[in-house]
Specification:
alpha+beta, Arc Repressor Mutant, subunit A, elongated, about 55% helix, 3-stranded antiparallel β-sheet
């Protein structure tokens, strides 16, 4: 038997029409649930960083450069699941804003090492403050053991 749930449809500006729709087990699909959860988290993330003019990819790039000074673009691209051209565009944008500098590696002249500038470090601190508050809104929904199980499950999905 099909389940009936209230669902958001017809989003236009601030007006949201709510209808009872048959999900016909759509809501029983893992992919559907993960996508809906990701959408909710993404909307909240975008609201949290509003006005900072930074993308999730740029944020992750700043975060990893901070944690790994001298990291190469290729290593970042691989770690974040991006192709090299996309990573180069992300780093170019961060460099244009004065957040990242490239330095030729002394060990391998073909390699570009990436470092955060003082402005990049300050910007990342501001972004992290907002992200911490954003994360708390979602992690507060879970008991510690539930959150650990969820994180473990998501890791398994990412590795599948």
């Amino acid at each position: 038997m099909s389940k009936v749930r209230s669902a958001r449809t017809a989003e236009r500006g601030d007006a949201v029409e709510s209808l009872d729709l048959r999900f016909d087990d759509l809501d029983a699909l893992l992919g559907y649930r993960v996508r809906r959860a990701q959408g909710a988290i993404h909307r909240d993330y975008m609201a949290a960083i509003a006005g900072l003019d930074v993308t999730q990819k740029q944020t992750a790039t700043l975060w990893l450069i901070h944690a790994n000074p001298g990291v190469s673009q290729a290593s970042l691209a691989s770690s974040l699941g991006m192709d090299r051209a996309t990573m180069m565009a992300v780093v170019d944008r961060l460099e244009d804003r004065g957040f990242v500098i490239r330095q030729r590696s002394v060990a391998d002249r073909r390699r570009q090492e990436l470092y955060l500038t003082p402005a990049g470090q300050g910007f990342l601190r501001k972004v992290k403050t907002r992200i911490v508050a954003h994360e708390r809104r979602f992690t507060a929904c879970f008991k510690p053991a539930e959150l650990a199980a969820l994180m473990s499950a998501l890791t398994k999905i990412a590795r599948a």
